[in-house]
Amino acid sequence: MAVAAEGARRKERVLCLFDVDGTLTPARQKIDPEVAAFLQKLRSRVQIGVVGGSDYSKIAEQLGDGDEVIENFDYVFAENGTVQYKHGRLLSKQTIQNHLGEELLQDLINFCLRYMALLRLPKKRGTFIEFRNGMLNISPIGRSCTLEERIEFSELDKKEKIREKFVEALETEFAGKGLRFSRVYQQVLGRYVQDASGIQPLLTPPLPAAPPQAPANSNAAGLPLPPRPPVHSPRCPEGSLQNRPCHTPAHSSPEAPPHTSAETLGPRACMPSPSLLCAGTC
């Protein structure tokens, strides 16, 4: 009985938050069924949630069909937490125009369009600015470019510092306007590091005696480890210039989740994504 009570308390107070692209799925791809099944087993022990920069429709498309994502996860934070769901219910949705006001928003969009119009790149495609609820997603090469074209731009950006110079120009132009600008990065885990390694201790129920030895391909609780999505190195997934309000989901509403998470263990590196940066209100 004590073990069951402790398990219930753990489920109530512990929240495991997962990134989407590059963690639960390859960039912009569907979740592997084995990973989805593993997450539901984890959910029987703790609360689980996802957070991503994409809008809700893109996250829902990657993690299920229809609205399965808000049924299969206790918390869903889309657009960097500006759109929040808890237990299948929309908590709040913040819009960038409410934060910036229409005049400043248009000044920002017009400046970005003028700046990108003067850039000479090997290739330019379409969808340079994508307007979402809580952010502007801006890409100087265009979000409709192919993976190969994104890689080409990423290699050029390493030499020419295109995004870095764009950030500097934005910071100069909009100094004192309550905006923060930074580039978007993609985390790349070490070759032999699995995302599941950081949550293994949470999967082990509190028992008086040590649990039996688990098979080599299982975690400490005997649950089979899901296959890790392919590491995106040297190929970066999609990159962008994003505009987001500067706050963390844990403090975004009175019904925010417990401020507890499981951090992935092991070495990691940061690699720039092939487009640009993020700008957020502070």
Protein topology:
Blueprint lengths: L1 H12 L1 E5 L13 H11 L3 E5 L4 H8 L4 H5 L2 E4 L4 E4 L2 E5 L2 H5 L1 H16 L11 E3 L4 E3 L8 H14 L1 H12 L5 E11 L10 H4 L37 E3 L24 E14 L1
Parallel strand pairs: 1-2, 2-3, 9-10
Antiparallel strand pairs: 3-4, 4-5, 6-7, 7-9, 8-10
Please summarize the sheet with the most strands: 5 strands, mixed
Head-to-tail CA distance between termini: 47 Å
Question: Which percent range fits the helix content?
Answer: 25-40%
Described by the principal axes of the CA atoms, the overall outline is globular
Strand line-up of the largest beta sheet? 1-2-3-4-5
Question: How many whole angstroms does the radius of gyration measure?
Answer: 20 Å
| Helix run count | 9
Low-confidence stretches: 185-211, 229-282
- CATH homology superfamily name of the domain at 2-94 and 190-226 and 248-265: HAD superfamily/HAD-like
Question: What is the CATH C-level name of the domain at 2-94 and 190-226 and 248-265?
Answer: Alpha Beta
Count of strand segments:
10
SSE order, one letter for each helix or strand: HEHEHHEEEHHEEHHEHEE
Predict the CATH topology of the domain at 2-94 and 190-226 and 248-265: Rossmann fold
Into which percentage range does the β-strand content fall?
Answer: 15-25%
| Mean of residue pLDDT values | 72
Proper CATH architecture of the domain at 2-94 and 190-226 and 248-265: 3-Layer(aba) Sandwich
The chain-level structural class is alpha/beta
